[in-house]
Structures are given as structure tokens and as C-alpha cells.
Amino acid sequence: GVWGEKMLFGRKYMGTLRVTFVIDEHGTITHIIDKVDNERAAQQVRELLAS
Q1: For every residue of the chain, which 3-state class applies, written as one string?
Q2: pLDDT, position 14
Q3: pLDDT at res. 6
Q4: Contacts of 41 (CB under 8 A, 6+ apart)
Q5: How far is Cα 13 from Cα 4, in angstroms, rounded to an integer?
Q6: Separation in Å, CA 18 to CA 9, 41, 50, 51
Q7: Which of these, 6, 7, 10, 32, has the minimum number of CB atoms within 10 Å of its CB?
Q8: Distance from C-alpha of 28 to C-alpha of 41, rounded to nearest angstrom
Q9: Is there a contact between 19 and 1 (Cβ–Cβ < 8 Å)?
């Protein structure tokens, strides 16, 4: 995750955002998924890698 601005009930505050980073064998970030669905996170990564 990353630290960033969130909103709850119309109030902005700073907090941890759910973000997934896909990193290749060289340590390079190849993809960033910023709309992570907790129940489908693994499937989201598999779909991304298959494309």
C-alpha cells in the first residue's frame, strides 16, 4: 500500500491506500493496480500478467 489522501463521509484525511505493485525479476515496477478489489486481488494480478 501507499500513504495518501482518503475520503470518508465527505471528510478528507491521510491514510493507507490499497495499491498492488507488480515487480519483475529485475526489481522494476511493471504495473500498478490502484483499484484493488480485496476479494479478487490475486485474480486481478493473474489477468494482468496473462495479457
Answers
A1: CEEEEEEECCEEEEEEECCEEEECCCCCEEEEECCCCHHHHHHHHHHHHHC
A2: 98
A3: 94
A4: 20
A5: 8
A6: 18, 10, 22, 22
A7: 10
A8: 20
A9: yes
User: Tens of pLDDT along 1-46?
Assistant: 799 999 999 999 999 999 999 999 999 999 998 888 888 889 989 9
For residues 32 and 19, what is the distance between their CA atoms, to the nearest angstrom?
Answer: 7
pTM of the predicted model, to two decimals? 0.69
Residues 33 and 23: their CA atoms lie apart, in Å, by 12
Which residue reads 465527505 in cell numbers?
Answer: 10
